[in-house]
Amino acid sequence: MNTTVVIFGASGDLTARKLVPGLYNLKRKGRLPAGTHVVGFARRPYTSEDFRALMRTGVEQFAGGPIDEAIWKEFAQSLSYFRGNLDAPADYASLDAYLKGIEGGAGNRLYYLSTSPEYYAPASQALGAAGLSKSSDGGWRRIIIEKPFGHDLESALALNDAVHSAWNESQVYRIDHYLGKETAQNVLFFRFANTMFEPVWNRNYIDNIQITVAETVDVGHRAGYYEQSGVLRDMFQNHLLQLLTLVTMEPPSSFSADAVRNEKLKVLNAIRAINPADVVLGQYAGYRDAEGIAPGSKTPTYGAIKLYVDNWRWHGVPIYIRCGKALAEKTSEINIQFQPPPHTMFMGANAITPNTIRLFIQPNEGISVTFSSKVPDTTQQARAVDMRFNFADVARGEKLPEAYERLQLDAMLGDASLFIRSDEIVRQWELIDPLIKLDREPTIYARETWGPPEADGLVGGSSDTWLQR
Ligand code: BG6
Question: What is the pTM of this model?
């Protein structure tokens, strides 16, 4: 059966930068299901020819390699544009007729809401009202919803209700593109496809966990969006909490969507309400000078949080998560800091460094294990050394795929394990919403630093500091 991917908001940045390059790469690798069509839906008066030309530029720039003309030609034939207005009920009906024309019989449909967020509720309901969320021909109907899913707890609950009035939860695929990253998925492989790490992955051996997502870029041309969002909504409510679930969840019994998401929900539910004293918020110097930013804006561009997971495995283990823009380095990494050995018999001048496992999500994707080793030609001195695995070394020339490539394919295959379920999204808001409501004045920090110095004070335990600074 043919499949049609309908991208709403097709004239937006994401379509040309990520979605269509991702679909093109699936085609190039022979993974795009046969008979897949891609329809861009937006208000602009493009023809299908215009749309193809725009998408070609996107593919040239963002698909990660020179365009393969033969593949592009075939792919472009399945690409078309439908001009429509999300506010006009009649346009959904004519879209349906247009899609039926393409399908020429029974067909599967994946609708991708990549519009501005205020359309998520009305568009998903309008699709339902026009009969586009159900099929009578045995084809499936699914909907992908981009982030942000709501801007606080209340609006996320309302959005879930609106979506559920037209769609079953099993049809809904909420995106968190961090889950589409190979190295984020590899956290589960590292933990659950090996024997040697999981037995020590708990409070008996781990002193603390640190998750850092640091960006060097500032808010750039997205000031309008960012000013309303800030780092807590933009990154903590979704990406940071999802990384945290991967590190702390219990092993699911299978890699199926519900088994995985049940375990994630359990661990999200076990996170203790975050103490406002354990939250540091910052704003990079000069943020308020950008166009579109209020002169006295309190929007945080940096956050650092200490939290606890109140369950048997993690009782008493502090977990530090931090994220910010205009920082000293671009890195997303998870650091597992082990306890020091219970007794040290080596009396060398330098102290024994506790073991660490570092999972590098990006860039320089890899994993390192740090352990103590004897300093040659001394009697009792030890120093920390590193065993390092780089993804690039085993990739055999293949590039790590973009997150959106994997996620679009999974949605077409009906695998929702890397998408956020309605109950997860609600719980994530329950945790972060109270921090947003603190409405605290952020500390101004200098660009190209590691953020406000108070964040150093959050970290205690044997490490005494962020491992990465
Ligand atoms: C997005 C945020 O979800 O993630 C951006 O809106 C952020 O502000 C981006 O820059 C980071 O994603 P990545 O994949 O570049 O780490």
Answer: 0.96
